[in-house]
Amino acid sequence: MSIKEKVFSQLIKDNQGLIIKVSRLYTNSLEDEQDLFQEIVLQLWRSYDTFKGNSKISTWMYRVALNTAITLFRKKTKSPQTDELMDFHYPDFIEDDDEKQQQISLLYKVVKMLPNVERAIVMMYLDDLPYRDISENLGITEVNARVKMNRLKKTLKELMEKHA
């Protein structure tokens, strides 16, 4: 494995939570989550050489992941097979706290009810990204990102109460 491949592999391992969140929020089955996870990793690899460091690596990864998620399942064609370099597996997480797991599942359920852009805003907000990064990822103003998130907090609260 080359140095570039090792660095990329470590980057994916360090940021797999970001990829999992995007995969989970933009799909409805475990199989689709796993497929999207693999596709995001593939797209990250394909665009890895174009990352110039003008933004944070996480900002770039979010942008690639979100663009991949939003466009992937619109396409009717099958995604290309991955090679050994892309042999990352969707991890299985076991949550010991049942009540916490139920709350997380409910949150994912109601976030999935939101339109794509709003899903992305919530996901990045929950990852503690600054509004500047959220706005940069989505191509909206920072003020617009703040306003949307404030409205989304109310919407999410209502949805969680309704579906609890």
Topology:
Blueprint: H1 3-14, H2 16-25, H3 30-47, H4 57-72, H5 98-111, H6 116-126, H7 131-138, H8 142-163
Keywords:
164 residues; mainly alpha; 8 helices
Structure description:
By secondary structure, the protein is mainly α. Helix content is 68%, strand content 0%. Helix 2 packs across helix 3 and helix 5 crosses helix 8.
Span between termini: 48 Å
Computed structural class: mainly alpha
Low-confidence runs of at least 5 consecutive residues:
76-95
Mean pLDDT: 84
Query: What is the overall silhouette?
Result: globular
- Sheet with the most strands? none
Compute the number of strand runs.
0
Radius of gyration: 16 Å
DSSP strand content: under 5%
Q: What's the helix count? A: 8
Portion of residues within helices: 55-70%
- Element-level helix/strand string: HHHHHHHH
* Multimeric status of the protein: single chain
Concise description?
This protein has eight helices and no strands. It is mainly α and 164 residues long.
